[in-house]
Amino acid sequence: MNLLSYGLLGMVAREESSGYDLMLKIQPYWQAKHSQIYPLLSRMEEKNLLSSRWIQQSDKPDKKMYGITEHGREILQEWMLSHLSAPVTRDELSLRLFCLWLTEEEGARRMVAERKRHFLERIDYFESLLASRPQHTPTFGSPEFGEFILIQKGLMNARAGLEWCQMVLGMIPREGTTSLQEKLVSSI
Amino acid sequence: MNLLSYGLLGMVAREESSGYDLMLKIQPYWQAKHSQIYPLLSRMEEKNLLSSRWIQQSDKPDKKMYGITEHGREILQEWMLSHLSAPVTRDELSLRLFCLWLTEEEGARRMVAERKRHFLERIDYFESLLASRPQHTPTFGSPEFGEFILIQKGLMNARAGLEWCQMVLGMIPREGTTSLQEKLVSSI
DNA sequence: ACTTGCATGTAACTTGTTACATGATTTA
DNA sequence: TAAATCATGTAACAAGTTACATGCAAGT
């Protein structure tokens, strides 16, 4: 059982879901493709952590809804008490910064601007999630609490990223902005 | 050529390094083990992106220093101009928050406290990096600039994470703090 | 005596991505 | 008419982790 499997198990524990549902819901926090999720769900059913039933739909394709079993819930509880592993981030931008000195102002600005767009999109997404739920802050113990602080986690992270982008864009001179003095110095 | 390979190539472009050096330097930004790095460096040498030479050492084991080739530099330049991919984060904590309602206050607090320690450690690390380099802010174009904003990236991210932890710890009631009224309500 | 750091590598395995495969309905 | 959404799955491949393997020097 890997971390993704536990995550899926936990989501099913909250509400019965199809693989497709789970994929969409988990995407913003853990980038997993359907080709990874479907086999995991099958294996978890074999291990008796999940049960499934087919739901016929008229307009859309039929779907397989998964629910958690008693055994699944026990395993889930154990996981929640086990040691928490450190987050893993792999960001191409970090690698590129090691050799940023190889690029011109324009290239560097383009890169950071692209990342800025990414964060703005994420902020939009998380804010729309917040807007589509009860106004009052949920209290600990309710299922809404976990979801609320999860959204806050994404939001605060994206805002920090945006701030960084703006700081950096402020530090890279726009081309054509170089002063006469600097040009003279760099031409030596 | 994967992202990690480009990252290593970029680091070698800055200064000649051994696989061991690269592993240590890249760790805080991209968690790669030596068992992944060594074969990548070998393959990049085969492709004529890197060249290597053995350095004998008396007190420590000998080491293989890699330098970038002309061809390597060209490939690196191309990469810097190509499309930047989105960052990928896999955080067990995010998955756990989906089913936080399964745990008690104590378990939840422990989890967040553990994460808080993680961020405090990272902040310490990045601040020590800042302290061990020239006081004045580097300007765009110098190799120090990229490294400076990379450290800032890690720092701002870790600070945002810490802030989130503190917000959440403030929202989870400490056990024994529950009011009489709440106890009566929850006992129904 | 034991562990940590330095230093390099391979083998077996797990995890994650891309591509293949199907097919109806809705929207542009 | 083309693309996107819904919906499930498999196969081949790439990326990343864990374990195995060696060995010396310095510190605890």
From TrEMBL, chains A, B:
Residues 89-169 form the Transcription regulator PadR C-terminal domain. It comes from the Bacteria. Coiled coil: none annotated. Gene3D superfamilies: 6.10.140.190, Winged helix-like DNA-binding domain superfamily/Winged helix DNA-binding domain (1.10.10.10). InterPro entries: Tscrpt_reg_PadR_C (IPR018309), Tscrpt_reg_PadR_N (IPR005149), WH-like_DNA-bd_sf (IPR036388), WH_DNA-bd_sf (IPR036390). Residues 8-78 form the Transcription regulator PadR N-terminal domain. This is PadR family transcriptional regulator.
